[in-house]
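Record 1 of the preview.
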Amino acid sequence: MSTSQTPAAPARSPGSRWLSKRYVVFAGVLGGIAGLAMSTRTWIHVVPAPGAINVQEFDVSGQDAATAVAALAVVVLAGSVAAAIAGRLARWIIAVLVLLSGLGIAASALTALSDPVAASVSKVGAAAGTMRIQGDYQVTFWPWLTVAFGVWIMASAIWLAVAGRRWKTSRKYTPATVAATGEAGDSPASASASAAATGGDPAPEPHESAVLDEIDGWDSLSRGEDPTR
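->
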């Protein structure tokens, strides 16, 4: 007795697995969350010089040292989530926005690293009432880690642009009117053909019915009758 064997599904290669939507979207979301987290960390620790001003030591967070980091991280997070349901053209646009956002995050962190005194101006003004004080501006490792995540975000944008070409566009979000036009039974020509096949009269066109109703209404008005009854 012979038995039929169902052919096994072809195994996915490791390369195609790494181009899947799950990994690419996760990489972008991870970069956006990390950017938001970095903006809340202490980037600069300010130690005023003795006798310079009567101010205690204070910290400067990433939100004060580089205000653009948090806003750009939100763009990365929202764009990465939207890429999961976007079309091919929209994915390209999202990839460009994510790339520019990652570049902005890295550039903002590098600017704070290159001039910590200027990056601390807003916090110094709030703490001491002056734009600049003499002291020691100690940079922590968080800005360096922010630069690394900025590079990560740029890499995830390139990854999205390459892998997004292989993704299938979901029809879940296709408007219902577009899907309805693809059904043969909903077209006027199909309705007329069906009526002719069964020997019945084709249904009047919507425009023709509207014109007839309007004429009947005017006739009723001319006779003094209420056409709405």
